[in-house]
Amino acid sequence: MKIKILTFHAELNYGANLQAYALKAFLSSKGHDVSFINYKRKQKYSKLLLFVISIIGKSPGSPYSKFKRNLVELKSDFQKEKIFKKFQNEYLPQTTGTYHSLKQLKKTPPEADMYIVGSDQIWSPKIVLECDMPVYFLNFGHEIIKRISYAASSGGEVFSNDMQAVALDSLSKFDQLGAREDSLVFYLTRIGLAKAEWTPDPTFLINWKEHLNLNAENKRKKVSKFILAKGNQERGVILESLACSLDSFSDLEKLDMKGINFSPFDWIRAISKSKLLITDSYHAVLFALFTHTPFLFLKWGKGFNRDERILSLLKRLELNQLAVDGTTIASTTEASLMTIDWSFVDERIISMGDVGKTFLSRALK
């Protein structure tokens, strides 16, 4: 079967690239011809405007010091882009043409037997502009092409009234609807899309330890904390404070990921080799789980719906206590880092992966 996937496969983001890779790898292993629709979605702000805002904004420092700091970050971004482009060219094949609008997709739609939209926050109103949302509802291509969503996410948000009507009309034509968060399944069901069901992130479809030949020996060779600050500078300070408050890990050296540009696979290996991960990244937590790396997740708190995806996951794994919201760690939380039942976690991960595989197997019949 010829399958075209629409997701955020070309982002400079580890999670976005690895979830795209995992879905493609699983489908290809079943003998299907898989590639990604090369769609360039519209951005709310240009990189140049964001650069200017970062200099004149309210962050600490003089305009000159912020200019120098942002130039360093800009250089790092260019290096990161080079690394990611190499990964994408090797593992994430794209359609020959690049699409920039729904009109172009309707005029010359990608040839396929099936379209898959997802995973990632492809239905998030905070990320995808309303003018682009119908693209991610797959409102293009011949009607005989099968359409499904897999582990789609809205980032915990709901559609506007106008967009909800478009979503209901478009998604009702899908053969199957898979959503990554329970809250999205509930929302889609409430607006009349009863076929919606929960599906795990595509990264659950792969045994990563076998896939990348990771093993327990690596952890004994590396004694470092792995600190990944996904948010702003202030959250980086909080992550640092959390690391310093852990008595059981006080003798470990720190590996701060900010400014280090790994390839996506080496990013996984870095997590695998670490004795501890402290992060506010969803996919970093997933790969900590896959590689048996103890971790703490720093919650984003009130006003940030992004916590729901990780909290619902940790609830399924009975690891709720590893999501923290401040600079102090309860002694029971620190103790639980040392006693994670990895056999139980593995069983749940396999079970969750089986849900995704069953969902896709039904769609591929």
TrEMBL record:
Q: Name one GO molecular function term.
A: transferase activity
* Keywords on record: Transferase
Query: Which residue range or ranges hold the Polysaccharide pyruvyl transferase domain?
Result: 13-300
Q: Which Pfam families match?
A: PS_pyruv_trans
Official protein name in the record = Polysaccharide pyruvyl transferase
